[in-house]
Design a protein that fits this description.
Layout lengths: L3 E2 L5 E4 L5 E4 L1 H4 L9 H5 L20 E2 L9 H5 L3 H8 L14 H6 L5 E5 L6 E9 L5 E5 L1 H4 L5 E6 L7 E11 L10 E4 L23 E6 L8 E12 L2 E5 L14 E3 L5 E9 L4 E6 H13 L7 E5 L2 E6 L3 E9 L5 E6 L24 E8 L2 E9 L2
Parallel strand pairs: 4-9
Antiparallel strand pairs: 1-12, 2-3, 5-6, 5-8, 6-7, 7-10, 8-9, 9-10, 11-12, 11-14, 12-13, 13-16, 14-15, 15-16, 17-18, 19-20, 19-21, 21-22
Keywords: Signal
Pfam family, one: Trypsin_2
InterPro entries: Peptidase_S1_PA
Amino acid sequence: MRAFLFVLSCLLTVPFAAAQKLPAKNFLRGGLAPAKIEKNILLNLRYIPPASLAAQSAFQTAKTAVVKPPVRNEQEVADFSPLQRTIARQTLGGLQAPAETTSLAQTEKHIRASLVEVVGRASGDLMGSGFVVQSRSGRLYAVVSYHVVGRKGNTVAVRTYPEKGAPVVYNGLIVNAAGSFGINAPDAAIIALPQEAQAYVRPLTIAPSLPEKGSELVVWGSPYACEGFARIDELKVTLAQGIKMVMDSPDVSEEFNGLCGSPVLNAQGQVAGIYSGHDPEQGQVFAVNARQALEWLLESYEQGKLPAPLTYKVYGRDVLQIQAEETIGWVYHFDQGGTLLHKVYLPKYNGRFDPEHAEWLFPDVQHGDFLEFEIVKHRFVDRTVSVGIS
């Protein structure tokens, strides 16, 4: 079994006398595949039941979003349909204790309705991947990468996928809260979905903790290289600490471009991470700690507050705070005489790092040395902070 499997490869070959080819997007994306090909498609996919072969539905027309007020109490949940009640109680935080998680296979049976894409408002071109979650209040959100959609208040288009029928495009949605850039930062953003999406999307459950080293994870998303959703497996966790996860992949390449924002799923079908980038030379894939990033963004937004500043520490001492949409860029290590010894570009640093232990960047730091942090906001250096090591 290939580790890197494009579940929706650009063409699927049907094994009968006159071989026919079918664009894979017609399968999960609700197209009009010939009925006689349906059975053969199943032989090429894992876990996914056949999509509807019915005609295009009324969902085909793009719609303007109207966001439903958050669900505040159990009575409002009781007014939902049975499916909506189940979803409301099994999502991030939940109104009640989450139901027992089944398996990755169960999650993947309905994965189409859990995924979203960020697309160009005018062109419709794919910009990035994402997925659906539901907050404690019951409100639905698309989770995407901060570096794809940018700052809070930006206007974007999001394409969602019912399990059956054509995709639903919501144009003019607003980025409600945004994180920071880089693989060592909460590179995530949330976008509230319209009320009507309750009828067909399936929010994913967020893992309660980071995966153990050696765990194998799976990514579902929309790479630029293929017209369809892709499943990437055999991602082995080598580091999971703080906000960052690092995974080894035997097949990582530039064909992974477009996956940023995709859910990284564990064996229980829960979202452990949010895909944030990859390094083909090192054979590595990176992801953001999903629970830490989303709780940080969602709790503050739904309370009408700005996300709390992120605190960075050196040897247990608070040394600096950065706000949402700020990023630490270069970090410099100087000796007490002012000579530059080392420097690290934090947004791409793939080594061990935790904001609670910024000293890990420079294991040979000595008493009397000092560190200098560049704080970047919207791609420009906003300020620098110098920290003496005492």
